[in-house]
Each structure stands twice: as C-alpha cells, then as structure tokens.
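Throughout our pipeline, every protein is held as a single compact record rather than as scattered files. The remainder of this section carries one protein's record, kept here as part of the documentation.

===
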Amino acid sequence: MLTDDFWIQPAKGFTDRTRGRTEEEILKIESTIGFRFPELYRDLMKIQNGGHLRRRAYPFEDGIQELFYNNAKLDPIFVGSVVNVLQELSEFMDEEEIEELAQTEINHMDRLIIVSSMYGHSYMCFDYGWQEETVRSEPEVCFFDMERGNGFEEYLRVESFEKLVSELVYYGYESTRFYIGIKSSLSIDEIIDVLAVQWSVKFQEHTTDRYGWFNFDKWFSGELEIISDLSFHIVVSPNQHRSGTYLFQNHADNTFVIEIVPTQKDATSERDSTEYAVVINNLLLKLKEKSVTASILLVPFNLS
C-alpha cells in the first residue's frame, strides 16, 4: 500500500502535534479551507500529521530529481494553519503586485492550498483550479519556486496526489544509504559480536541521538573496507525507538536495522546501486552462516 512506508516516524514519539488526525479534525480543516483533501492525503494524515518522507525524489522530464530536500517535508495540518497562496502572498504584497505576479487572466490563487512550504523557497500546493473558471473537485499537485523567473514559477505539475506518491523514489544526495533488517532474539551486543567476526569490522558504541534521528539506549558504527577505493560506513541500531516508534514501521518484525553508506575515495569512479547490492548480498550470506535472518529493506533507486 502507498501508505505503508510513506512517513519517517518521529524518533521521540508522537505528540499531539504529530499524531495522526481524526476524521472529525480533518473535516473541520476542510470546512475552513472550503475544499476536500485527496483521499490518499487524508489517509496519510490520519497516520501521521506531516513530517519527513521516506522517498523524496520524482521523475522530471530530464531525469529523476530530489523534491523534498534540505529538511523539506509535508506540513502538519490544524484548523487555521492551512492557508492558500493568496493568503500567504497577501502578508507581504498588495493586490496589484499579486495580479502582476500571477500573469494570467483567470486568477484564483485562493484555490491553491499550500500543503508544504518545502525548504523555505517554494510551495507544494493542491490546485483546485486557480487558472480555471470552475472549481476542481479533485486537485492536481503543483510546485512553485518563489525565487525563479518572476518569483512565482511553476516547476512541476502532477495530475493527482496519488500519482505523485506512487512515483516517488528513494534517490538523490540525501538518499544514498542501504538498509538491512535483522530478525533475531539476540541482544544488540550479541548481534554486534556476530557482525564483528563475520564482517571483520571493529565497532564503536554510541549513545547520541544523531541530530534527532535516533532514540536508542545505544547504537554502533564501524568501517568495512571492500576494495582499495571503496568502503562501507556501517551503523547498527534497534529498529524500535525508546518512544515506541520505528525506523521502519512497515518492517516492525525486524529487531535491528543496519545502515550502510558506501564511500568512494575516487569521486570520479562511478558505481550504481546494483554493484553495491551484490556486495551487500555477499555480506548477508555470511550472516546466514550464523543463522542470522537478514534482508534488504531499502536501496537507492538505480538509474542504469
């Protein structure tokens, strides 16, 4: 399902702000803005009220590009917090300036509902027909850059929110890690002992929160040299945070998660994710020899 691993859950657990919205709460918000949200968006907001996406890149005409980067996320929704583009621009522009910015005869910016402020310089909107005579019942999704061109340049339009979500991929500068899940009754210290021997890695123990992404009693990291110009930075942690949320909630039966970050000394030598996956599969075979059940959870999208 499209909702299964859409969100990255908050490490410190859900609060009243981040918990999923109820049907009643969503109806109140929709009544305030005058539009009904797409069904998939409503379902996602019932699971978690905004946050970071697992898959953040989208296929543009000239190739796949990251959409949600530099901490961009879907905004949380509350009564009074969801605004349209007209309301947003009216905070610092007069009516004449807004008309000039729109550059269109039909201008219904109040039909552009902002669902993400992205990284602070653009908007992701549900478009209920801002350049049309009649209101759309099902919105398209559009992205506007507030710094390109005339200061209000559309750079992506997708026919529906469901299409957008279904075509998002794990790819880009912020999506280079490979993730492995481990199902085991062993403690994390015992798992580390197995990995240290089978993979010939010296691990170091940590108790930090990794800038808010972790919430564990402890986790481990180490370096594994594959060949002369390639090494893997390895992070091993529990899957479930102390708060009860997960790194991979759609794989909650996995006790531990191994994060692998390939590092190349020669930046001019390019390898795709398929090559890395072959090496990782060989590492998994070594764990199988010790009856440790491990499987790949997530790999970067491969363009080749």
Q: What stands out?
A: The mean pLDDT is 93.
